Amino acid sequence: MLASLSLRGRDSRALLPALFLLLLLPALAMAVYGLNDRLPMREWPALLAPHTLPQIIASASLLPRSLAALLCGAALGLAGALFQHVLRNRMAAPETVGAAGGAQLALALTTLFAPSLLDGGRVWVAFGGGLIAVALVFALAWRQKLEPLPLILAGMIVTLYCGALGSALILMNEQYLVSLFVWGSGSLVQNDWSAIRLLAPMLAAGMMACLLLLRPLVLLELGDEAARSLGVPLFALRAAALAVAVFLSTAVISSIGLFGFIGLAGPTLASFAGARTLRQRLLWSPLLAMALLWLTDQTVQQIDRLLGDPLPTGAITALFGAPLILLLLPQMKAHGGLWQGTVSVIRSAAPWRRVILLAMLVLAAAIVALCWGRGPQGWRWIGDLHELTPLLPWRLPRSAAALAAGGMLAAAGMILQRLTANPMASPEVLGITSGAAIGMISMLYIAPSAAGFTHVVAASAGALGVLLVILLLGRRSAFSPDRILLAGIALGALFDALTAVLTANGDPRAVILLNWTMGSTYRVDGAQATLTVGIAVVLLGLTPLISRWLTILPLGDGTSRSLGLSLGRTRLLLLIMTAAMTATATLVIGPLSFIGLMAPHLARMLGLHTVPSQMAGAILSGGLLMLAADWAGRMVLFPFQLPAGLMATLFGAPLVMWLLTRKR
Amino acid sequence: MACGVFVPRAIHALVLAVCLLLAPGSSLWAAEPARRIVSLDWGLTETLLALGVVPVAVADVPGYRGWVVEPALPEGVVDLGSRFEPNLEQLQQLKPDLILATPYQNPLKPLLERIAPVETIAIYEEDASGRDNGNHPLERAVAATRHLGSLTDRQSEAERLIADTDALFTAARQRLDAAGAEAHRPLYIATSVDERHVWLYARNSLFQDVFDRLGLSNAWQAETNFWGFSSAGYDELADAPEARLLLLRPLPSGVEASLARNPLWNALPFVRAQRVALIDPVLMFGTLPASGRFARLLVLTLTGAPL
Hints:
The complex is a heterodimer.
Chain A: H1 12-38, H2 53-87, H3 99-113, H4 116-119, H5 122-141, H6 148-172, H7 178-184, H8 194-220, H9 224-229, H10 234-255, H11 260-272, H12 278-307, H13 313-328, H14 351-371, E1 372-375, E2 378-381, H15 385-388, H16 392-420, H17 427-430, H18 432-446, H19 452-475, H20 481-504, H21 509-517, H22 526-542, H23 547-552, H24 557-562, H25 567-589, H26 595-605, H27 611-635, H28 644-662
Chain B: H1 2-22, H2 27-31, E1 37-39, H3 42-50, E2 57-58, H4 61-67, E3 78-79, H5 88-93, E4 98-101, H6 109-112, E5 118-120, H7 137-151, H8 155-179, E6 187-192, E7 197-201, H9 206-214, E8 229-233, E9 244-248, H10 255-260, H11 263-267, H12 269-272, E10 276-279, H13 288-303
Parallel strand pairs in B: 1-2, 1-4, 2-3, 4-5, 6-9, 9-10
Antiparallel strand pairs in B: 6-7, 7-8
Helix pairs in contact in B: 7-8, 8-13, 9-13
């Protein structure tokens, strides 16, 4: 059921407007102050027909910026509330269904290959891209009648794929695509009213549609069975509501930019502050999101005035919003997994034959990766050991580390998906990779000349920090799965914000950062490879011992306890193991490879359903995917190299998409 | 007793002497200059080419041709791929004697040193003092030119490049002085990021140093980062109403069209007075050749005639 968050024992009716005003009033004060600073108050009537330059600036830049913040906030808050309601997932956001990824990819492609299309307005290009991506997501989830689970899975994979393709384009043409960095980090800077003129009618239309859908949507709260028995056409209703939400979020993305966290923060804040019914959530989510975005943007403008360097508002929103979610988390009612019982435990005929086949494939791939490659003389197969020796110091560490890291991420993802009974769970979602990344980035900026080893230490410290936060948050709720995931999402947003701020300011180090976050094995040397492989052998060797826990845990807390499992301790041990594997892998292939997400699904789709065989299959296919990705990344655009994590997403995502439509 | 102390000292002195002789830049090295040079930075590449040294390989050949333009990169120079992740297998198989890099490539140094000695030459470098370190890239480019000259045994070519660039600045300044007040309006020199944002080059930038040599004033006085630019919205360009705007090519696609439709852009003083000019690509993070190219482009733009 839709998780109902609430603050126990408080008067929700007073809390919601109070929170709204608390966010709105300072924003209003700062807006008035800022406008007065640019244009004295007695001249304000002239804003309707501006003549002097200060009047034109106020009217074409300051006013639309405030309005843009309000409209974006409202649209995203409303879209977020709709997504959460229909998809029954409080982690659902406008990004979840692929709109953001599609829009960004469309802009990148158009910038490179058909720039003349942009002259007609990038808005429509982004809008088209967003709609195509969403259509693809819906097509993938169509056979399952757009049920929440397959839809989110499809949305996530399409988003990943678009993001990976877009990043590859940015890496290949770094200097041409700076504008995409700025757009992606959510800048609200406006020069005229065109974006407002586009967005306002779209928002109005979306709100109208929302009102029309309100009554049947309320019935959805009763549960599918009850709603169906009352004659609600579930499928049509979900499709219509999702269409409205997609329309609203694509409108914002295409006309202004990305503000993903707002679409999540609005509904979450509303729920925390006690909005219980759908009506309340649909009213207060947009209002709170709107006030939050406006307040953030006004604060950012004040900071700009002091620093002189414009900060991207969308990224800063996440810097504010993520800690807010973390602070509110302990107040949340403990809740079981969202998809309990949906993880299949059916046995297949001969799983181990498939596992052995997979292992042989990994071996063959490793030999190819070491012996076959491009050089100054073109493609060459080098079978002669004497000739191969000078190349091995470059090829062997990267291949070995990629293989080990892929296997560890896969195992970590497998554990997390079983632990939380949530197919969206992965080490990336848990936030451990983000923690490692934050540690590594801080090092890059605090001590740019520091040697590689300090990066290792810094990243480990970051990963450990996140683990501690998660353990602290988790202890109060016996490591309740969805609370841990939400904490991970908040931390991930924090990391995104950090990178967005850094990349938007145009620091050339952003490209190094981007390479690493996309999973480049470039800097792996012999020592790091040995360490990675060593840790992988030890930790992956332990996985058979936890099979029983992973089989029992998805059956639910009650069943697990009655089978004699100590929930708190089991989860703690699993978390520590996951964290260790994730941190080691992140240091090699960056925080965003998504192998951990894809590999367990691949294994299951290969027919490996029992825990031991699925684990083995996940480890092998994760390692294989990463190994192949690393090799391909070095070869495809030779002498340019594409990061292995990125290539893994480019390979893996279509594979998962294809399997998704084929089988269930 | 005395002997016992003396012998280790003598060995010590001998070792020290050998070390000094072998240190980069010392006479023993200069006698036998590196022949197979690889350059990983566009700025160092352009200086090398201006000294008449053709590197065996450079990073990002298409990027150099699009953003640096001249001195033209000869055909046959091997591409090493990205400046941030140069292809190490390729590099090793080319067997270079010397690799030239800049501080932003420091993280790569341990890997590169396994292939050949790495010489890091700093033009733009973050220091402990924070963002605005009062850097003068032009001075550092002169020092870098001499350094590269001695590394490649082209000391006289290096002095000639320095003198030629100096003479070019003097000639450019005379041409601008002759052109009068119209050529001496304060200048915004910017890269367009998109239709709402620009990067403005000022303090700490190569362009600022060239402005100073040519007697031109920069309209953008805000603090900059150590690369010598800060980013801003177009509305912030209204503070100097008499200024001229120079936008560096290439512009991101679609920007020109959307600016033309934009009321704020059209209300900016330099747009109303038609004092906006597009100038050809020149490496903003460059060295001496870029500074000379920039001076020539400035004369062409501000006086309407080439230098």
